[in-house]
Amino acid sequence: MFESHEAPPTEEHPSFRAVLSNPSFMFLWLAQVFSQLADKVILVYLIILLGVAGFSANSDTSKLTLVFTIPAVIFGSIAGVYVDRWNKKWLMIASNLLRAVFTLALPLALWFQPPSAFWIYAMTFLVSTSTQFFAPAEIAMIPVVVEKRHLLAANSLFTTTMLGSVVIGMGVAEPILHRFGDHLYGHLAIGGMYIVSTILLFFVGMRFKGEPQKPGGASSVLKELKEGFDYVLKDPDVRFLLLRLILLFSAFAAMTVLVIGFVNDVLQLDKRYFGYLLASSGLGMGISAAVVGRFGARMGKERLISGGFVAMGLLLIAMANLNWFTALMNVASKVGSASAIEIGLAFVLAFLLGLPAAAIAVPIQTMLQEEIPENMRGKVFGVQNMLINVANTLPLALAGVLADLLDARFPGYGVVLVMSLVGLILLGGAFLKRRPQTLAAR
Question: Are 396 and 47 in contact (CB under 8 A)?
Fold first, then answer.
C-alpha cells in the first residue's frame, strides 16, 4: 500500500535546507525555475507576436494552442524512452539550447511579406517538441541527485515551481515583455532564460546513482514505448496517482483561463489585475511547499492528498460565489457589486487556494518516484508529461467557451458557474478510491 512509503518516525525530518545544501540539486532546481518561467512567458509572447503579424482572431490563438499540444501527444511518451537511454543531464542541456535557438528565430516571421503565421507555428512546434524531452528528464533526475530520505522536500520545491510557473509565470509575463519592448526584444529575454537554465545544468553532478547507457537502436523504441504505457496500465497504484495529478493540473489550467473573467465580472476590476490574483495563489503554494517539505512525512501522504482536494474544492466554490456570501453578510450593497472587502477576500481566498494545491501535488509526485523503478522512470514520466499536457489543453480550450455559453443563458454568471463546477470536480477527487483488488494485492 502507499502508506508503506511513509518515512519512519525516527527518521530525520526533510527540509529545504537539507536538499539545497546539495549543490547538484540546487543547480537543478534553479535551472527548472528559469526553464519553467521561459515556458510560460513564451506563450504570452507568441500571442503578442501573432497580433503584431496581423493574426489576432480567436481561431489563430486556438491554432497556436493546438500546435503547442500536438508535440506532447506525439513525442511525450517517445521522449521518455530516450530519457532512459541517454544521459539525462546532457539531454536537458540540448533541449534548452534548441529552445533558445527556435525562440530567437521567432521574429523572422515579420520579415516575410506578408508576415508568416506558418513560421510562428513552425517554431512553436519545434520549441514544444524540445520541451517534451526536458520535462521527463527533469523529473527523473531528482532521485538521481537526491537521497531517498530527502525526496519529499525535493519534490516540494520542484512541484511547487512547476505549479507556480503556471500561475505566476502568466502574471509576470506581460511586465517582463513590456520592459523588453514586447515583440521587438521579448524573444531575447525568453532565449536568455533558456540559456541561463543551460549554464546552471552544467554544475549538476549525478552523485548517488550511475547513468548506465542503454544499448539499442531505433527499432526497439516502440517496444520501450509500449513498456511505459504497459507499466502505467498494469500498475493500478501508478495509474491512480496519475489520475489524481491530471485532475489537479486540469483544474489549474481551467482556473488560469477563468480567473481573467472572474476579475472582470465578479470583482468589477480591469482584466489586467488577474496576474496579481494568480500571484497570490503562487505565494500560498510556496508557503505550503515549505510546510509539506518539512512536516509532510508526519502528516501522511494520503491524508494530505485527500484533505487537499476537499479544501481546494471548497475554497474555489467559495471564491466563485464571493458576491453571494458577502451579500448574505451585508458586506456588499447588492449581489454583483464589488466592494473593497470583497476584493480583499478574493485575494485571501486565492492565497488559501494555493495551500492545498502543493499539499496534493508534492506527495503524489514523491509517491510516483518511490513507486517506479529507476529503469522505468523516464518512460513513465514521459507518459505522465503527455497526459498532463493533453489534460491541460482541454480545460484551456473549453473553460472559456463553456463560460461564454453559460453567460449567454445566465448573464454575468458564466464564470461563476464554471468555477463552481471545477470546485465540485476537485471535491470529487478526495473521494476517488483505488480498486479493492489493489488494496488486497499490496
Answer: no
From the list 133, 49, 136, the residue with the least C-alpha distance to 98 is 133
Which of 99-113, 206-220, 256-270, 289-303 has the largest mean confidence?
Answer: 99-113
CB–CB of 252/354 below 8 Å? Answer: no
In sequence order, the 6+-apart residues with CB closer than 8 A to the CB of 111 are none
User: Is the pLDDT assigned to residue 272 strictly greater than 70?
Assistant: no
Phi, psi of 142 (to 5 degrees): -60, -50
Neighbours of 9 (CB within 10 A): 8
Q: Is the dihedral of CA 36, 42, 44, 45 positive or negative?
A: positive
**Mean pLDDT over each residue of the chain, to the nearest integer:** 76
Nearest CA among 7, 108, 8 for reference residue 53? 108
Name the grid cell of 277. Answer: 490574483
213 closest CA partner among 93, 83, 92, 95: 83
Q: Which residues have C-beta within 8 Å of that of residue 185, sequence separation ≥ 6?
A: none
Cα distance between residue 353 and residue 212, in whole Å: 42
Q: What DSSP letter does each residue of 164-211 carry, written as one string?
A: HHHHHHHHHHHHHHHHTTTTTTHHHHHHHHHHHHHHHHTT----SS--
Q: What is the dihedral of CA 365, 369, 372, 373, to 10 degrees?
A: 170
Domains of the chain (ranges; CATH) run: 14-205+219-432 (1.20.1250.20)
